[in-house]
Amino acid sequence: MAYKTIVEDGIDILVVGAGLGGTGAAWEARFWGKDKNIVIAEKANMDRSGAVAQGLYAINCYMGTRWGENNPEDHVRYARIDLMGLVREDLLFDMARHVDSTVHQFEDWGLPIMKDPKTGQYLREGRWQIMIHGESYKPIVSEAAKKSADKVFNRICVTHLLMDESKENRVAGAVGFNVRTGNYHVFKSKTVICGAGGASNIFKPRSVGEGSGRTWYAPWSSASAYGLMIDAGAKMTQMENRIVLARFKDGYGPVGAYFLHLKTYTQNCLGEEYESKWFPELQKMVGKEYLDPEAAHLTHRPIPTCLRNHALINEVNAGRGPIHMVTMQAFQDPHLEEVGWENFLGMTVGQAVLWAATDVDPKNENPELTTSEPYVMGSHATGSGAWCSGPEDLSPPEYFWGYNRMTTVEGLFGAGDAVGGTPHAFSSGSFTEGRLAAKAACRYIDDGKAEGIVVSSEQIKRRKEEVYKPLEHYKVYRNAIVAGDVNPHYINPKQGLDRLQKLMDEYCGGMSVNYMTNDKLLHIGLKKLAIMEEDLESLAAKDIHELLRAWELKHRHRAAECVTQHTLFRKETRWPGYYYRGDAMKVDDENWHVLTVSRRDPESGEYTMEKAPCYHLVAPDE
Amino acid sequence: MPTFVYMTRCDGCGHCVDICPSDIMHIDKTYRRAYNIEPNMCWECYSCVKACPQHAIDVRGYADFAPLGHSVRVDRDEEKGTIAWRIKFRNGTEKNFLSPITTKPWGTAIPQLADVPGPSQEMRDSELLYNEPKYIRMDEGGLPTLESAGLKMKKGVYY
Ligand SMILES: Cc1cc2nc3c(=O)[nH]c(=O)nc-3n(C[C@H](O)[C@H](O)[C@H](O)COP(=O)(O)OP(=O)(O)OC[C@H]3O[C@@H](n4cnc5c(N)ncnc54)[C@H](O)[C@@H]3O)c2cc1C
Ligand code: SF4
Ligand code: SF4
User: Fold this and answer.
1) How far apart are CA A177 and CA A188, in angstroms?
2) B119 CB-near residues (< 8 Å, 6+ apart)
3) How far apart are the C-alpha atoms of A319 and B132, rounded to whole Å?
4) Taking residues A331-352, what's their average pLDDT?
5) A145 vs chain B: nearest CA distance in angstroms?
6) φ, ψ for residue A211, nearest 5 deg
7) I want to staple A247 with a disulfide (CB 3.0 to 4.6 A). Which of A133, A252, A510, B96 is the partner?
8) Which of B45, B104, B112 faces A53 most closely, judged by CB atoms?
9) In the prediction, which pLDDT does A401 show?
10) DSSP letter (8 states) at residue A191
């Protein structure tokens, strides 16, 4: 192989993936580790990478404690009810008590936060959201990370974590390749903070053909955080808790500002309110504890997002689609019209392109909504990710093993989508989690926990062969055929992605089966995933760009397998509207008011599933 | 939606290649100009459009659901700290928007943490982060704890 091996040795803190979580980690690490060697390895260009590449128009997690708006415990209650009771309250409380300090810093750094002209306070979109002009959100946090890091390696696709050979279950760095030069990069590090983001494109998307890049979560959210951590043997939690989004049809434009700020609302094709109609039946499935429209009305307790999805899905199935967002009233107000459009231009430009192309002006017509395919992530309104330690002062023994946000692999930390059990962190909360992980990682090193790490040249070499195998495979078998992509010896990454998406869709509760699955289907799914894993050994990449796609596919496949295992384990329908277990259609609090935890044995590939207790630190409603 | 590059405007500078989060803007070897090699992995994020000094990149909505005859153009001006959008509908309607992108001159507002005084041992042993507790409430208030929030650790539910 002609590719050079470039070794970066003596790293203290390696940030893998510099999105909102990773930039937060790199930035804060410098304060606690003045003498530490901080290095970033990022798949794209940190200035515009990750879910915030096009910017954001809102910061969705801000307490406003300084103005007496909310306290951390209020946020825990909110996230808990939205997730049907199951969250890591220690991690959530911890994130929420620090998140305001993150946002105040952002303002200092030049992020334009809108103000209420009457009060001078941040302009609220909803109880938790504040409105920003966030086109440059990512360049701004990227500048902060650059100021703290010793070195930034852009365009490195990290493929594997390195493991220490002197002490079991301890991380030792990471390897990957440069997407431009093709060179092999080895990062030997005492700690790794994984911020490699969530997962789009593991379920078949609604978009087809040229439009299949139009996913709601970014198409480059390649499940790498999960793939890397699962392969290293880290325990994962709540991976069954995928999310389905109700969004504007085709463009997947965000609806938050529409519901909360513009006060638009939904109706069926007959112009009727439809949600409440589904609630009595739904209440029988989930119980009054989780769906109590009267209490919701009185106390402003939110109706869980999944249950509102359930109503939308059922209304459409009953033949009364499409569901419309009623915008025509709000858009008569020029200020609200501006907010409505800028909301797209600030974070989902494609929705504006689509409405321009189809002459949809929400002033004159009410646009359609739909539900998306499922996504797997841990920072938006869902909590999939690694099973991490909480902070010392908040966490019960089952949730605490020494270092905040450290996974069950020693020295491996997570932030943002990578961390499980902490939904509703969003951009600001992810950045905050990165900061928490950085402080803990510095302490881990200062406590001497990273002494004596050994990485053999054999490990480095073995990984190198694995990394380039798809290129080699292509070279060997390409000329077995005349031309084209149909080859009996290999599949290419796109063909593999199509297979993964189809089988996850049909067996694990995707959109084409109305989010329905059961024990039998999941077993078939697992079988097909196992066969697919064999075929992934015959993956072929014709160039470095395809090698990137090959590794994204491998990470997605691993995450998909873990999602399927978790979905099989949890024998109930906890989140109707996200997915249904047809063989267990009710919420079963007697048996499943627990967090699910999995571990894949890196040697055997076997999964061990367990239930972890759910601690409620915060009492029910005020 | 997928980007394309105007042949006469592109000078092959590579800014778009450098910025695309999806790694799909590449330089064509024959023409030495950029093009989108994988339109079905384009998020229409406009990162490349904003970065192109020649305004050579534009977006044509996805063929499978967006009819022809529209355009969404952007001009991001770092010096002025603004971004300007022009939306043209298929039927000719036009809408313009202008927003700030920063409130401070680039590169000046973020401190070097290497230069600020380091944390005391007491701070290291606490749950505080940089600039805390001050930055939490912008007053003298402390970091919320279970005690300050009146919460008690209750036994985990393990049904
Ligand atoms: C359309 C949309 C709207 C949203 N709206 C809001 C909103 O209004 N308000 C809000 O607060 N939040 C919003 N969010 C959520 C917010 O963007 C995420 O919660 C946050 O970005 C998650 O941070 P993260 O660091 O976990 O992931 P990301 O920010 O996605 O970062 C992941 C990083 O890892 C890198 N990476 C991936 N794989 C690899 C690999 N193999 N090797 C190296 N690097 C890798 C990626 O390139 C990327 O830089 C929105 C998200 C989307 C998509
Ligand atoms: S940034 Fe513009 S001018 Fe430069 S290569 Fe890309 S399209 Fe061409
Ligand atoms: S719009 Fe975004 S994803 Fe598409 S080519 Fe440009 S930078 Fe890449």
Assistant:
1) 14
2) A31, A32, B130
3) 54
4) 95
5) 10
6) -80, 5
7) A252
8) B45
9) 97
10) E
Give the active site residue among B14, B18, B38, B43.
Answer: B43
B43 counts as catalytic: yes
Structure tokens at A112: 């334009």
Amino acid at A186: V
Q: Which atom of ligand 2 is nearest to the CA of B17?
A: 6
Pocket residue to mutate for ligand 1, from A95, A201, A427, A435, most atoms within 8 A of Cβ: A427
pTM > 0.95: yes or no: yes
* pLDDT for the residue numbered B158: 60
Closest C-alpha to A447, from B147, B24, B70, B125: B125
Of chain A, the percentage scoring pLDDT greater than 70 comes to 100
Residue from the list A66, A100, A393 with its beta carbon closest to the beta carbon of B146: A393
DSSP state string for A263-313: --EEE-TTS---HHHHHHHHHHHH-TTT--HHHHHHH-PPPPHHHHHHHHH
What percentage of chain A exceeds 90 in pLDDT? 96
How close B68 comes to chain A (CA, Å)? 6
**CA–CA separation, B114 vs A570, rounded Å?**
47
- Residue of A48, A100, A179 with shortest CB distance to B136: A100
Interface contact B1-A220, CB threshold 8 A? no
Residue A209 to residue B62, Cβ atoms within 8 A? yes
What token pair was written down for A438? 């950085």
Predicted confidence (pLDDT) per residue in A444-497, tens digit: 999 999 999 999 999 999 999 999 999 999 999 999 999 999 999 999 999 999
CB–CB contact B144 A211 (8 Å): no
